[in-house]
Amino acid sequence: MAGHSKWANIQHRKGRQDEKRQRVWTRVSREIMVAARTGGGDPGANPRLRLAIEKAKAANMPLTNVNHAIAKATGTLEGMSYEEVRYEGYGIGGAAIIVDCMTDNKVRTVAEVRHAFLKHGGNMGTEGSVAFQFKHCGQLIFAPGTSEDRVMEVALEAGAEDVITDDDGAIEVLTAFADFESVKKALEAAGLTAEVANVTMRADNSIELTGDDAERMQKLLDVLEDLDDTQDLFHNAAL
């Protein structure tokens, strides 16, 4: 199955995150805290916490920071209490956007998200206004040049739902949420390490934007992602 090219978008976002490591660490710390608070501080019994710790390792976050975040969440240390909140809206050309935040002040956060949408040509929607266009699933993306046959063989044998080859040669493996870890481990055991491996909200369809529209959409996405409380950002724009 062929898909739209997304490799450039992935590299753009990864480059921005590399430039802002401290912000990445802050977001990962929040994710660890929420995961530990809701599912317990034992990674062996908490899949969400295991995934958050993997993100911390990928971001070169020190183990002391990881343990500190878990301790805060489980009550060993005092710390802020964060809650998850999701905002939905429309960008340039009607492209759908989901902004997942973790915040200690929902009034502040919603005001900042709404302002970003309005200032940069978007519109904030109501709960559920665009989420139906996305699927909650596991996603692993392999760089162009990776053996498509080998990825497909291992992934499907391990229980993946689909393997998609994008226009630029990147290979995308999709899994059910519950199967993400087992498929990821099977691929790694076969010597296949994904450039991107996470649980995500994947758009069912994309909206192609070019020229000025693409630039305006990228600006809106960058501003939303730069908000202090933004944890994850999902959209269906093909830029």
Helix-strand layout with pairing:
Blueprint: E1 2-3, H1 7-19, H2 21-39, H3 47-58, H4 63-73, E2 83-90, E3 96-103, H5 106-119, E4 123-124, E5 134-142, H6 148-158, E6 162-166, E7 171-175, H7 180-189, E8 196-203, E9 207-208, H8 211-226, E10 230-235, E11 237-238
Parallel strand pairs: 1-6, 9-11
Antiparallel strand pairs: 2-3, 2-4, 3-10, 5-7, 5-8, 6-7
Care to describe what's here?
By secondary structure, the chain is α+β, with helices and mostly antiparallel strands. It has three domains: 65 residues, Arc Repressor Mutant, subunit A (Orthogonal Bundle), CATH 1.10.10.200; 71 residues, YebC, transcriptional regulation domain (Alpha-Beta Plaits, 2-Layer Sandwich), CATH 3.30.70.980; 71 residues, Alpha-Beta Plaits (2-Layer Sandwich). The strands form three sheets. The chain has a five-stranded mixed beta sheet, covered by helices on one side. Strands 4-2-3-10 form a four-stranded antiparallel beta sheet. A hairpin with a 4-residue loop joins β6 and β7. α2 packs antiparallel against α3, α2 crosses α4 and α6 crosses α7. The radius of gyration is 18 Å and the shape is globular. It starts with a strand and ends with a strand. The model has no long low-confidence stretch (mean pLDDT 90).
Question: How would you sum up this structure in a few lines?
Answer:
By secondary structure, the protein is of the alpha+beta class. Helices cover 44% and strands 24% of the residues. It folds into three domains: 9-73, Arc Repressor Mutant, subunit A; 84-123 and 208-238, Alpha-Beta Plaits (2-Layer Sandwich); 133-203, YebC, transcriptional regulation domain (Alpha-Beta Plaits, 2-Layer Sandwich), CATH 3.30.70.
